[in-house]
Inverse folding.
């Protein structure tokens, strides 16, 4: 079948999935309480000029079984990555003979709430840094160790561990730092720009068709407060830039490189969209 005959079919399937009034997945009226005693903020008032009247966690859109997995740390498969991250935190690596703990001590104290406020402006680099970039800068500058390759298992585990120290903390990025506002502007433009052969933008799914099904999955607002996230579909923890690239791939567009200017700008903007939601890392999703 030729491409010009495939695309109308593909677009037609998407249109049917988006338009059907019967295929809806409205957010549930439920509370996420981790281990019975740590309630997460899954509904928050939006910051000024936000497109939604209420900011909602993706947890509210998941099946009862998936929601239950995240609510129980013993059952949550993403906690294995937290445990591995703790091991890495305390392991000496590099020519300087240091571990993360050598400088930062107990992560439960030094990293408490830190992950809730990334990306942050890095003046030396002249751009926003997420946790992955900050970890690599520490490895090179302080530990004299090699930076991680994108999505290396240890990179994902360490980021998951650090973000987990902010469990329950409301997410917020400071747009007054450096040039963060201009990166936010660029990220917003990218969020609403249609790309790929399917001519879709982030907003087409997560804003205009929020609460509907696309294939077997249901579309949340696309908030990122649970990343790194354990995805049942892939049976592993998925980083935010992996998910960005996966979505772009699904529009049949060329994937930007991880930590590229495009994806860093998108991370700044999308993180802002989830302002006020608790960090849920590691969240559990479909």
């Amino acid at each position: 079948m030729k491409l010009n005959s495939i695309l109308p079919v593909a677009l037609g399937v998407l249109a049917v999935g988006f338009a059907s009034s019967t295929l809806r997945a409205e957010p549930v009226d439920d509370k996420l309480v981790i281990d019975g005693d740590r309630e997460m903020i899954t509904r928050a008032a939006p910051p000024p000029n936000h497109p939604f009247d209420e900011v909602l966690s993706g947890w509210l859109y998941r099946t009862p079984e998936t929601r239950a997995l995240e609510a129980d740390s013993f059952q949550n498969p993403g906690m294995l990555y937290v445990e591995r991250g703790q091991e890495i935190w305390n392991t000496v690596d590099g020519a300087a003979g240091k571990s993360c703990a050598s400088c930062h001590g107990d992560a439960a104290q030094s990293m408490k709430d830190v992950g809730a406020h990334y990306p942050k402006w890095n003046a030396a680099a002249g751009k926003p840094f997420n946790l992955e970039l900050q970890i690599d800068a520490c490895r090179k500058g302080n530990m004299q160790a090699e930076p991680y390759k994108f999505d290396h298992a240890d990179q994902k585990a360490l980021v998951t561990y650090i973000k987990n120290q902010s469990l329950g903390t409301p997410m917020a990025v400071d747009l007054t730092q450096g040039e963060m506002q201009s990166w936010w502007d660029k990220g917003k433009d990218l969020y609403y720009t249609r790309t790929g052969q399917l001519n879709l933008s982030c907003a087409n799914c997560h804003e205009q068709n929020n609460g509907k099904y696309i294939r077997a999955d249901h579309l949340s607002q696309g908030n990122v407060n649970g990343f790194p996230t354990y995805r049942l579909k892939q049976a592993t923890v998925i980083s935010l830039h992996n998910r960005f690239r996966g979505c772009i791939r699904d529009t049949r567009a060329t994937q930007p490189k991880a930590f590229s200017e495009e994806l860093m700008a998108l991370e700044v903007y999308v993180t802002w969209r989830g302002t006020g939601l608790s960090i849920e890392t590691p969240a559990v999703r479909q």
User: Anything to note?
Assistant: Confidence is low (pLDDT under 50) at residues 1-22.
